[in-house]
Amino acid sequence: MGRSGGFLCLLLLSVLLLGYGVVLGAERGTPTRKSEGRVYVDIERSLVGLSMLAPLWRTDSSVRSLITIEPDLELEYRLAELNSNSPIPLSYHPRVRRYIEVFALERRAQVAKMLSLSQYFFPLFREWLDAYRLPLELVYLSVVESGLNPLAVSPSGAVGLWQFKLGSAEMFDLRVDSFVDERMDPTKSTRAACAYLQYLYRMFDDWLLALSAYNVGPGAVLRAIERAGGERDFWRLIPYLPEAAQNYVPAFIAALYVFHYADRYAISPDTPLVKFAEADTVHVAQAVSFEPLSHWTGVSVQLLHFLNPQFRLGYIPTPGPEGVPLVLPTDATKEFTRHRARIYAQSYKPKETPFPREVRRNIRVKHVVQPGEFLHKIAIFYGCTPADVQGWNKGIAPSLQAGDTLVLWVDPDRWAAIELEREKKN
C-alpha cells in the first residue's frame, strides 16, 4: 500500500516489542510499585524519552495540574461504555486504574505530545488495521510500546513505534543494515505489526491473550495457560503470566481510556512546530546525503531525520531502478526538483559508525536514599530496572535504608531530563 496524501505526514518508524518478564504479581488488588515492575519502567522510559522531540513542538503551558481520577464505579461505567463499541474487551481492574493515573496525572505533559503525534500516526495505523481486518482500537498499542516516540530505542535494542527487535525484523522481511533500518519505516513497520497481530489472534482467538503474546511472545502465554490448568480468561490468568504481560494489557486499556477522555483530564494536544500533514514524497534516483539536501531545500537536518528515520546515518544509499521515497515538507519538494543535480553531486557516503547511540557511555551517578524511597521507585526515576541497581551495588539489601548510597549508571538522555526537571523546581 503506498503513501497517500492524507498520510504523507508520516514521521517514521515501526515495530513491536517482545517484552520482558521478571516477577509474578498478585491476581487481585491495587498493584504496588513493586508489582508494576518492568512494564512501568518501560512506559516511564518511553514517555520521558519524548523530551528529545521538544524542538518539534511549541510549549503549551495551559495544561492544568489539579486533576483527580474518578471513583472506581465511574471508571467502570465509562469503560463499559467504551467496551460496548469495541471488539477488544475493555474491563475495569485496579491495574487499569493505576495506569490511568500514570497517563492522566503523572505523565500528562507527555500525553499531550502523544495526542499531537497521534493526529499523524493514527490515520496510517487505521489504514493498515482496516486492511488486515483488525480492530481499530489497536492503534493504542503503540502508545504502550513506545509512547508514540518515533525515535524510541529500548535498552534491549527494540526500535521505533512498534519496537521491533532485530530477529523480529528478519521474520517480517524488514531491511536492517548499516544505512537503512526499515523497523523505523512507518508504513513497512506498521504493516509488519498488523501481520503479527493477525497471526496472534488466529492462534489464541482472544484479544487480551493476543496482546499479552505480542508483549512477551506466544510461548510464554501458552505456558501460563498450561500452568493454570487450561484457564484462558486473561484476568484469572494474571498470576501465571510473566510480570510484563500482567501489566501490559491494563496499560493498553488505560491508554485507550485516557486518550478517549483526554478533555475530562484537561489534556490538550500540543501544537507541532512543524505541520507534518504538509508533507509530500519525492523519489530519489541516486545516493543522497542529508547535508546537501538540507542546504538546497532549506529543511533542517533534524527535521529530515524525523521525517525519514529509516536512513539511520542521514544517507540514502544508491537506490534501485524504482528509486527511493523521501518525505519532505511540501514547499521543499520544488526546491529538491530544482536543485536535484547539485544535491546528487554533493552527496557523499558517510564513514561514521551506524550505531552511535548504542556505544556511548552512560553517566555514573551517586544517589543517597531518602526516607520513603525504595528500590523500584529509584529504578523508575533513573530509567533503569531494580536488577540493574542491584547489579551495580553488589550485596545491597532489597530493603533500602535512608542514607544508603547507591552507584547508578544513567542514560545521558534520562540524566538530561532529570537535570531539566530539577532546574524547573528551583
Termini distance?
51 Å
Task: Quote the beta fraction.
Answer: 5-15%
Order of helices and strands: HEHHHHHHHHHHEEEHHEEHHHEHHEH
Shape: globular
DSSP summary, beta strand count: 8
From the 3D structure, determine the CATH topology of the largest domain: Lysozyme
Q: How many discrete domains?
A: 3
Descriptive tags:
426 residues; mainly alpha; Lysozyme; Membrane-bound Lytic Murein Transglycosylase D, Chain A; two-stranded antiparallel sheet; globular
Descriptive notes:
- The chain has helices spanning 33-49, 72-83, 94-106, 108-131, 141-146, 166-171, 186-204, 207-216, 218-227, 234-237, 243-260, 290-297, 301-307, 330-338, 340-346, 356-359, 375-382, 386-392, 412-425, and strands spanning 57-58, 271-272, 279-284, 288-289, 315-316, 324-329, 363-368, 405-410.
- It is 48% helix and 8% strand.
- The chain is built from 19 helices and 8 strands.
- The protein folds into 3 domains: 5-271, Lysozyme; 289-356, no CATH class; 360-425, Membrane-bound Lytic Murein Transglycosylase D, Chain A.
- The chain is mainly alpha-helical and 426 residues long.
- Helix 3 packs across helix 11.
- Mean pLDDT is 81; it is low at 1-35, 57-64 and 353-360.
- The strands form 4 sheets. A two-stranded antiparallel sheet has the order 1-2. A two-stranded antiparallel sheet has the order 3-6.
